[in-house]
UniProtKB/TrEMBL annotation:
Tagged with keyword Protein transport: yes
A single BP term in Gene Ontology: vesicle-mediated transport
InterPro entries attached to this UniProt entry: Adaptor_comp_med_subunit, AP2_Mu_C_sf, AP_mu_sigma_su, Clathrin_mu, Clathrin_mu_CS, Longin-like_dom_sf, MHD
Protein name stated in the entry: MHD domain-containing protein
UniProt domain MHD: residue ranges: 170-427
UniProt keyword terms in alphabetical order: Cytoplasmic vesicle, Membrane, Protein transport, Transport
Family: Belongs to the adaptor complexes medium subunit family.
Assembly and binders: Adaptor protein complex 1 (AP-1) is a heterotetramer composed of two large adaptins (gamma-type subunit and beta-type subunit), a medium adaptin (mu-type subunit) and a small adaptin (sigma-type subunit).
Origin superkingdom: Eukaryota
Length: 431
């Protein structure tokens, strides 16, 4: 078994210990000072900070969240990935209990924090990290904590993420297939980066201990079954599953089989890296300066997806000079908002069907006096936000979603598809 954590520390931004839980007795509070000294050394370095620090026989793993460092120290050869995941789970649990993890919420809830840390880790090994399950036997009121004498069934059950005895009058499952498109286009119009990050987000309201089976248009599965794919199948890559999925079953026959947690969770995430995907919304901007006193923009936005789909809540953020003022804007569709605090003009189009092209023209005054030898200002990219319902870039499809429970009730599955803009930037401003 991989080495365990010796202790867990919660520190403020000055390195002072807010909470310290010793699990194995082989480190002291002085380790927090050594850790913070190493962190300060790392911050003075130009390279990015490594989440794993080794010093004098002790391995420190940490995550910074708001104004708090969450850190474990270990004298053993520990599993770094496992402990870093545990730290993120600690943050999620504290956010569940306190709305947000920050120094003030820790100071106000010391007793609850220690109760949670005792349940989440035992002798340095991660135990229960599901907030919904912890909530069943660590309960909080305004000023009172109540610990039940007997742990809930989920703690002693093999299915630790779901309690027994759950009941609903109406049994329903909501599955959202959400894909986020990340695009970076350089000033020459070349696609530098293009990838799709997807997630199968579920909300389950099911009675009992249901068995769920999900089928996708997975090329490996369809070919193994001898079915024709004809371009309708996709290659799933870089898949990560929720702990409820039976991984051995998936590796054996690509079946996604699971007993779901109650409520909302991410069943699966995936990533598709491809240079084939065209930017769904293409934006070009030409900028013309006049005698250093005013500047004119001519912006063209074009939707590059099929006509049967429509992008909604489109926002195109155009960077402006810091001293731009007195806006005069005309659009062929939508409206515009001058946002001087962002040094930007935001073009909003509520509905943008596929295969359409719209124009925006704008003029701004430039009251500042600029010398001929001044350094050219840094050009920020055009940023785009949008949502396209009933559409996925990857072409992923849910072929079936079966829910089986021993009582034999009928459950209603609802499936939606949506594509959104992630980090979507185009450096297409031409002067």
């Amino acid at each position: 078994m991989a080495g365990a954590a010796s202790a867990l520390f919660l520190l403020d931004m000055k390195g002072r210990v807010l909470v310290w839980r010793d699990y194995r007795g082989d480190v002291s509070a002085a380790q927090a000072e050594r850790f913070f000294a190493k962190i300060q050394e790392g911050e003075s370095d130009s390279s990015s900070q490594d989440p794993v620090v080794f010093d004098d026989g002790v391995t420190y793993l940490f995550v910074q969240h708001n104004n708090v460092y969450v850190m474990t120290a270990s004298r053993q050869n520990c599993n770094a990935a496992s402990l870093l995941l545990f730290l993120h789970r600690v943050i999620d649990v504290f956010k569940h209990y306190f709305e947000e993890l920050e120094e003030e919420s820790l100071r106000d809830n010391f007793v609850v924090v220690y109760e949670l840390l005792d349940e989440m880790m035992d002798f340095g090994y991660p135990q229960f990290t599901e907030a919904n399950i912890l909530s069943e036997f660590i309960k909080t009121d305004a000023y009172k904590i109540e610990i039940t004498q007997r742990p809930p069934m989920a703690v002693t059950n093999a299915v630790s993420w779901r309690s027994e005895g759950i009941r609903y009058k109406k049994n329903e499952v909501f599955l959202d297939v959400v894909e986020s498109v990340n695009i970076l286009v350089n000033s020459n119009g070349q696609l530098v980066r293009s990838d799709v990050v997807g997630a199968l987000k579920m909300r389950t309201y099911l009675t009992g201990m249901p068995e769920c089976k999900l089928g996708l248009n997975d090329r490996v599965l369809l070919e193994a079954q001898g079915r024709s794919t004809k371009g309708k199948a996709i290659d799933l890559d870089d898949i990560k599953f929720h702990q409820c999925v039976r991984l051995a079953r998936f590796e054996n026959d690509r079946t996604i089989s699971f007993i779901p947690p109650d409520g909302a969770f991410d069943l699966m995430t995936y990533r598709l890296s491809t240079q084939v995907v065209r930017p769904l919304i293409w934006v070009e901007a030409q900028v013309e300066r006049h005698s250093r006193s005013r500047v004119e923009y001519a912006v063209k936005a074009r939707s590059q997806f099929k006509e049967r789909s429509t992008a909604t809540n489109v926002e195109i953020e155009l960077p402006l000079p810091a001293d731009a003022t007195t806006p005069n804007v005309r659009t062929s569709m939508g409206s515009s908002v001058y946002a001087p605090e962002k040094e930007a003009l935001v073009w909003k189009i509520k509905s943008f069907p596929g295969g359409k092209e719209y124009m925006l023209r704008a003029q701004f005054g430039l009251p500042s006096i600029v010398s001929e030898e001044s350094v050219p200002e840094k050009r920020a990219p055009i940023r785009v936000k949008f949502e396209i319902p009933y559409f996925t870039v990857s072409g992923i499809q849910v072929r079936y979603l079966k829910i089986i429970e021993k009582s034999g009730y009928q459950a209603l599955p609802w499936v939606r598809y949506i594509t959104t803009a992630g980090e979507y930037e185009l450096r297409m401003i031409q002067y």
